[in-house]
Amino acid sequence: MNSIYVDRQLTYVDFVFSEIDKWSLDPFIESLIAQYLAALICGIYEDAIEQILDEFIQKTSTTIEIKNFISNSVGNSFRNPDQSNIKRLLKLFNDQWGAQLDGKLQTNNWEALDAIVLHKNHIAHGTRSNITYPQIKRLFQDSKKIIKEIDLMIL
């Protein structure tokens, strides 16, 4: 990873999983933790993509005004980091980034990410989510490759 901040965020989630794995939990509590993790991971992914793009902007833009405008525009408009929103955002910077990213990923990576965002939205809007702890753990493992590849591609 090129972004130290993003690397720390992903490492934190791995740490959280490793700590939870040490516990013996009631299935209901485990379900609540899985829902929390879906929201946490989604937020970290959104933040990570914004951070990677911000680091890219800081390295490539010439004036502080341009840097501020782009950073603020991305920060104010990018939500729900699913496949379509990520590709839409990346295309604003470079028409080829989405295709380049697809060439480095598998379908299951995108499916995992989309599932995390879907569960987060269910939770955030008061709809019941049936995500389990083993599912969210697998979804995180499958989806974090997207963030790593974005980092390697852009930075």
Explain how this protein is built:
- It contains 7 helices and no strands.
- The chain is mainly α and 155 residues long.
- It has one domain.
- Helix 2 runs parallel beside helix 7 (133-154).
- It starts with a helix and ends with a helix.
- 27% of the residues are buried.
- The mean pLDDT is 96.
Salient structural properties:
single chain; 155 residues; mainly alpha; 7 helices; elongated
Which regions have little confidence, pLDDT < 50, spanning 5+ residues?
Answer: none
- Gap between N and C termini: 9 Å
Strands, count: 0
Query: Considering DSSP H and I runs of 4 or more, what fraction of the residues is helical?
Result: over 70%
Radius of gyration, whole Å: 16 Å
- Indicate the structural class: mainly alpha
- Overall domain count: 1
Main beta-sheet strand count, sense and barrel state:
none
Q: Report strand %.
A: under 5%
* Shape descriptor: elongated
Kindly state the mean pLDDT as a whole number? Answer: 96
Q: State the helix count.
A: 7
Order of helices and strands: HHHHHHH
Quick recap of the structure?
By secondary structure, the protein is mainly α. It has helices spanning 4-20, 27-60, 64-77, 83-93, 97-104, 107-124, 133-154.
Secondary structure layout:
Elements: H1 4-20, H2 27-60, H3 64-77, H4 83-93, H5 97-104, H6 107-124, H7 133-154
Helix pairs in contact: 1-2, 1-7, 2-3, 2-6, 2-7, 5-7, 6-7
